[in-house]
Amino acid sequence: MPLVFSLVLVATVFLGAALIGLRIRPRVVLAGCLGLIGVAMVFSEQLSHFEATGAAVPGLGYAFAGTLALALGGLAVARNHMAGLPIVETATLGMAYGAAFTFVVSVVLGGTVA
């Protein structure tokens, strides 16, 4: 899963170009690819035993979804910064909204509040 998460830099670059018009810088893409290769080398033993079966498939999907969420979150911060919005305040509001949403979903799904 660390290999999937290391795709965040490359995903952010291409999503930033597609969604908010950021420029793709080849050096950044190259750096992301080199980082991906480095992570693959570190985890090569585990990767050689990986089988996309059973519980690994949803886990891989969750890893890709988390990576996509991180990339989109970073792009939201970049867009807000370019619009002149204060970073700390907007991040605080985002975390508060996220916590409230998570709380409501938890209660709706039958979770208990301690």
Largest sheet: none
Strand content: under 5%
Can you count the helices?
6
**Structural class assignment:** mainly alpha
Describe this structure in words.
This protein is mostly helical. It has one domain. The chain has helices at residues 2-5, 8-20, 26-42, 44-48, 56-82, 87-108. It is flat. The two termini are 32 Å apart.
Keywords summarizing the entry:
114 residues; mainly alpha; 6 helices
What is the fold's blueprint, element by element?
Elements: H1 2-5, H2 8-20, H3 26-42, H4 44-48, H5 56-82, H6 87-108
Q: Short description, anyone?
A:
Helix 2 packs antiparallel against helix 3 and helix 2 packs across helix 5.
